[in-house]
Amino acid sequence: MFYGTIDAASIHPRIVVQKALGYNAAVVIVAHNHPSGVAEPSHADRTITLRLKEALSLVDVRLLDHIIVGEPCVSLAESGVI
After folding, report:
1. Residues 6 or more apart whose Cβ sits within 8 Å of residue 37
2. pTM of the prediction?
């Protein structure tokens, strides 16, 4: 849904909510990659996860997980962020 540069991407919760509503979704799983291959979640990853969770909850859509693709992949739900 979004494209970034080598070290950042702008994520807009409004667009994620629009897509979720467009698909009549009850739950959403988001994912992104870390080009470095190191999947350790950054402060920005944690912050956007919480913003997405809050925005989606306003329309009764549950954020099930945010997965960071790297080596190995990291689930923010399993990490306790969500």
Report:
1. 70, 71
2. 0.89
Mean pLDDT score, 17-42: 94
| Residue, of 65 and 6, whose pLDDT is higher | 65
Helix axes 43-57, 13-22, angle to 10 degrees: 50
- DSSP code per residue over 10-65: ---HHHHHHHHHHTT-SEEEEEEE-TTS--PPPHHHHHHHHHHHHHHHTTT-EEEE
Q: Which domains, ranges and CATH numbers included, belong to the chain?
A: 26-75 (3.40.140.10)
Strands of the sheet with 74-75, listed across from one edge: 27-33, 62-69, 74-75
Instruction: Tell me the pLDDT tens digit for each residue of 47-75.
Output: 999 999 999 999 999 999 999 999 899 99
CA distance 75 to 35: 17
The tokens describing 15, both together, are 């667009």
